[in-house]
Specification:
This protein is mainly beta. Helices cover about 5% and strands about 30% of the residues. The protein has a three-stranded antiparallel sheet with strand order 40-39-41, with no helix packed on it. Strands 1-2 form a two-stranded antiparallel sheet.
């Protein structure tokens, strides 16, 4: 009896203490004590509660399924020695907690782990063995048959790869390939916003998972920027919500709209008189295919609005003068067949087979002397390419009527004074190489490198000035003359007078003095002979093979 009275007294004391704790302990004034914290369903947001009149809101801890909130922790009261069966009920000594009851030893099938009897097949903190806790990113984890598994994903997350170890790895709120759920893909112009596919609006385009303003305006309805900047619609297309769309049969385009054809126009898709647009007439060898003018190819001809193969005996109606444009359509004697059309050769031309060529001129397509027209001669570095004069480019030179690469030692024949217009074609001292042509610097200019530059005010004409020969200040020697900007030494038997080389004469030359020369005729050097001429008739430079004085064999000719 006395023992029972003591127990009643203790219970009263505990009740009083609990009431006191209720008034003084918790989350803010009036909060519940730790062990009385409510256990709510996973995901419940208690912050949305509204305090009633004359009342306050207490803090609630939200625990996963199977767990109880004890103070500021979530625990399993069926196996927690400190909270065995209920919060705050601790086991003593070497007891363990089994099924919410403190016991001296674990039941069969249970394992003692850190003072608690647990079933390692389904204990989240000792899954498959003591201390092996289950946890997962963005998820609630649980132990099933000794292995950790995901019991539920946190809101906005999903386990799309099926891998338990990385938890719920996919944010279905913002993943365009898993938008609102696994494998739910957004379209090309959509982003994933709060788990919903959202299409970017007019004047916007998608970059990653964001809609950003276009640099080119509204790509939904702009025919020059349809769906994306620079994506231009063809003539018969409109831009419909960012897609290039061809107008259907019976319609034609006006601006960015497809409108019905007028009553007199009909179907512009296959009408040869109104192909693609009213009044757009096909040529005789063309058909109208989906609003496009299409020419029948070689070996085919038009029948109605179809291209059909030519009969075996007909052949190619594009180039055959006996079947030009259609089987049996013969060209006249002065006509050729071009693309299935009869074409008469013009004035100054005549027909040769199926080509019109200039009269008495030959092939003007590849003749460098008659390129494109009779007498139109190509330059030294030009070829005749299909009737057009074409210059060989840098690094090439002309051989016949072809441009071929220069050799390794040749280089650029456009600007190389040693290889001007062709390998080994060397410029003179006063010449520059201008686009493959040797060009002499004009009066008042001199050469510097591969350029003609104006002489200085005190320099004058460098072509014939002995004090400025070829360049300002370039003075000739006493026995030299300046000839086209080059220093030239007078030959033996001649001396310089001014800027000329004149023949020497004993006692001075005058109009009656005679000079003996050994003359060797060009092309017949064995017929050399001695001649006597007046000193004034001796050229500044003797002909090739000639020299002053009699011939060695004494042969003598007339004066």
């Amino acid at each position: 009896m006395q023992t029972r009275s003591i127990q009643i007294a203790l219970r009263a004391l505990v009740g009083a203490y609990a009431a006191l704790a209720f008034l003084s302990i918790g989350c803010g004034s009036g909060a519940l004590p730790p062990w009385t914290a409510a256990s709510t369903a996973p995901g419940t947001d208690t912050n949305t509660c509204t305090a009633p009149e004359h009342g306050r809101i207490s803090c609630n801890i939200v625990c996963d399924d199977g767990y109880t909130a004890c103070g500021d922790i979530c625990t399993r009261v069926d196996s927690d020695r400190r909270n065995c069966g209920s919060c705050g009920k601790a086991c003593s000594g070497d007891q363990t907690c089994s099924g919410g009851v403190c016991v001296g030893s674990c039941l069969q099938g249970q394992t003692a782990c850190n003072g608690a009897c647990v079933d390692t097949d389904n204990d989240d903190r000792n899954c498959g063995g003591c201390g092996n806790g289950c946890s997962a990113d963005h998820a609630s984890a649980s132990c099933r048959q000794g292995s950790c598994d995901i019991s539920s994903c946190h809101p906005g997350w999903a386990n799309c790869n099926g891998n338990v170890h990385d938890g719920c790895e996919t944010s279905i709120d913002s993943d365009r390939n898993n938008c609102g759920g696994c494998d739910v893909s957004c379209r090309e112009d959509e982003i994933c916003e709060h788990g919903h596919p959202v299409r970017c609006g007019p004047s916007e385009h998608r970059e990653g998972n964001e809609c950003v303003a276009n640099r080119c305006g509204d790509t939904d309805n702009d025919r020059d920027n349809c769906g994306v900047c620079g994506n231009r619609c063809s003539e018969e297309e409109i831009c419909d919500h960012g897609h290039r769309v061809r107008c259907a049969p019976g319609y034609h385009r006006q601006g960015n709209a497809c409108v019905p054809n007028p009553g007199s126009c009909g179907d512009t898709s296959s009408d040869r008189e109104n192909c693609g647009a009213c009044g757009s007439r096909c040529e005789d060898d063309e058909i109208c295919e989906r609003g496009h003018h299409v020419r029948c190819g070689a070996g085919s001809h038009r029948e109605g609005n179809r291209c059909v193969p030519n009969p075996p005996s007909c052949g190619d109606t594009d180039q055959d003068r006996d079947n030009c444009g259609a089987c049996g359509s013969h060209c006249a004697d002065d006509e050729i067949c071009v693309g299935g059309h009869h074409v008469r050769c013009g004035a100054g031309f005549h027909r040769e087979d199926n080509a019109c060529v200039p009269e008495a001129c030959g092939d003007t397509d590849h003749d460098r002397n008659n390129c494109g027209a009779c007498g139109n001669r190509c330059g030294d570095d030009e070829i005749c390419d299909h009737g057009r004069r074409a210059r060989c480019g840098a690094g090439h030179h002309r051989e016949g009527n072809a441009c071929v690469p220069n050799g390794n030692s040749c280089g650029d024949t456009d600007n190389d004074r040693d290889h001007c217009g062709g390998c080994g074609n060397r410029c003179e001292d006063d010449e520059v190489c201008d686009k493959g042509h040797r060009v002499r610097c004009t009066t008042g200019y001199h050469r510097e490198g591969n350029r003609c530059v104006a002489n200085g005010n005190s320099c004058g004409d460098t072509g014939n000035d002995r004090n400025n020969c070829g360049a300002c200040g370039n003075r000739c020697g006493d026995d030299e003359v300046c000839e086209h900007g080059k220093h030239v030494k007078c030959d033996e038997g001649f001396h310089r007078e001014g800027n000329s080389c004149v023949a020497n004469c004993a006692g001075g030359c005058n109009g009656n003095d005679k000079v003996t020369i050994c003359h060797r005729p060009p092309g017949n050097p064995s017929n050399e002979h001695t001649i006597t001429v007046g000193a004034s008739a001796v050229p500044a430079h003797l002909a090739h093979g000639d020299h002053l004085g009699p011939c060695a064999d004494g042969k003598h000719g007339g004066g």
